Amino acid sequence: MSSTKTGRRSRAVPLGQDDPRVIAARQAERRLYDYYGLEPAHHLVAPPRLGLRVRLTEVGSGPPVLVVPGNTGDGFPFAPLLPHLPGRRVIVLNRPGGGLSEGMDHTTIGFRDLARYTLSTVLDTLGIERVPIIAHSMGGHWSQWFAMDRPDRVTALALLGVPGNVLTTQPPLALRLASVRGLNRPVVRATIPRRTQDALKGLGFLGHSPQTLQRLPAAMAECYFTFDRLPNYQMSTRTLMEVTNRLRGSNPRIRITEAELAAVRAPTALLWGEHDPFGDVETGKRIAALVQHGQFQELPGGGHLPWLDDPETAGRLVMDLLRSAEHQ
Predict the structure, then answer these.
(1) Quick one: which of 118, 122, 64, 74 has its CA closest to 98?
(2) Tens digits of residue pLDDT in 272-304
(3) Bridge-partner residues for 297, per DSSP?
(4) CA 140/CA 142 separation, integer angstroms
């Protein structure tokens, strides 16, 4: 366990590899990657200060690309995008609390320090000096901070979906309710699907059409169902919401401002779903204009995870950014 900003010991939630819930999640994830013809390799990194193990998932070979997921940190939703990133060694970071990384109490460490330290440790462990980053939602928040704090290590940013807590972006009311102590326990419990066939309904609330949900394989629903039942899920989700949100919007202490956006030097592409409930298109255009080398692309009909709606277009746009950054 690591020391915290309050002097207490951090509460980590280990995952027993023989726990039936862990086994079920691994099997569902394996079926999902099989569906997309992927052969992932998984390994664990143990950042010393965190006192927990963080899981990495690697697919493909070539120049490295780091993926930083949103939400609690599950990497499996990126599976539909990965076949459209050819010739790259894609390293998916399952953020602490998600994706079979061990869970944590996010209130026990400074959130920006957590982002910077975790990403630095992962790159150091892998022997990678500089890397482009693909990120989603809260992962986009982490990645923008990292690009500000360690500009020498980030060659490009592809932000898929509205990045959390930037300017006026904010999560829907249901997620903001999960930031209120006393309410957040029942709110988080209520988000856990009771049946596998209900597991994708939450994506409908995130702006995804019934047509998109119908196209997703059964293994995607199985992943959402099993990962939400892991013993690390509830505390990690609840404390993440406490740190990042308030009932009326984003926590001002972590909100990224105009002045901070202007400090992002890495070429940045925002891929913004038309129906993303976290922020409107005009806000996305404003963010792209504020960073030093920003571009904005609206994805018609897209929701908060826009690559689920159109993985081919999302992959092409990300690859355009990666190739462009390589020639700078």
Answers:
(1) 74
(2) 999 999 999 999 999 999 999 999 999 999 999
(3) 271
(4) 5
